[in-house]
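Section 3.1: Structural characterization of target chains.
Under the original work plan, the team committed to producing a structural model for every single-chain target entering the pipeline before any wet-lab resources were allocated. The record below documents one such target. The sequence was received from the expression subgroup and is listed exactly as submitted; it comprises 144 residues.
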Amino acid sequence: MPGHKQAVGCRWQLAFARLLRLPLAALYQEYARILASRHTPSASNAHDIVDLIVSRIEHMRGRDCSLDQIARYAGYSRYRVAHLFKARTGMSIGSYINRIRAQYLEQARILDIPAKQVAAELGFQSTTAFYNWRRKYQAATRTP
């Protein structure tokens, strides 16, 4: 009878292992489906991605929004993100970030917020970097 008890225990373990594998297989298939859809976005998915990127840039006011950081956030390569963004908005991510920063700069001027605080809020490493950006951006946007 000891052999019978081992055989029953072994059958139970095999049945239990099979039951465990079923949900894991289903999870794996779902994960594979998500990954496949993520790397080949449909048109509506591409719009959603760009909307998320726009929302993040506006929320962060351009701070911590390098192309690499945005690509990591979106889960795509930097080239794919840049392509989707330009196709949807007609401008590069850098140009959009500069536009958002300029809008905040105008609000900060009205509210009389110190330059050091504005520089930190916009993600510049120093006030000098902020002044250099402002000078370059204003020169680029001036109309002759």
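Residues 1-39 form one domain.
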